Amino acid sequence: MQSLQAKASEWSGVDSADAFAIDEINLFQKLGLEAFVNLSTNFYNRVYDDEEEWFRSIFANSKKEDAIQNQYEFFAQRMGGPPLYSQRRGHPALIGRHRPFPVTHEAAERWLHHMEQALDSSSDIDADSKRKMFNFFRHTAFFLVAGDELKKTQNQTQNQTQNQTQNQAQTQQQQQQLPCKNAPSNSHHACKNF
């Protein structure tokens, strides 16, 4: 089975070395917290104003201010800053935190569309940092898609197992109701000698 990271690289077109080039330099020290706040604010303004209802509905149960704070705190922490996100919310656990949402290929591309526009319009982030960040975002978006597909596979397997268990129970119950050929005709018990 292909790892989630390998799927993310394949689907995103970004290899792991480029995706994690953000770790070669402390982007938080280079850019400062305000750059992450501005990027996340710009991004979520675009998301909440998206013309596609299906995409906006993904964020319908989240307050925009909370989404902005969660994102900039995570970005700052992941890119070398203090553990703001973890102190407030616990471990980021990206796949788990995105589990309730439909993280499809289409949703990832739409998310990336808005992030690319937000990055392009950010004057407080240099071109090299933008490139590194976008590679990380693209890879991570498809890592979440891979996690969502794994969730669906696990749910299907769980449902199949439940169905098999129910079918086995029904078969056992039916077998217990069959009369044994050596038993009196009014007797219903399990028979071992069919």
UniProtKB/TrEMBL annotation:
Entry-linked Pfam families: Bac_globin (PF01152)
Highest rank taxon of the organism: Eukaryota
Biased segments, Low complexity type: 154-177
Family: Belongs to the truncated hemoglobin family. Group II subfamily.
Protein name: Two-on-two hemoglobin-3
InterPro entries reported in the protein's UniProt record: GlbO/GLB3-like, Globin-like_sf, Globin/Proto, Hemoglobin_trunc
Keywords, in A-Z order: Heme, Iron, Metal-binding, Oxygen transport, Transport
Molecular function GO labels: heme binding; metal ion binding; oxygen binding; oxygen carrier activity
Region ranges (Disordered): 154-194
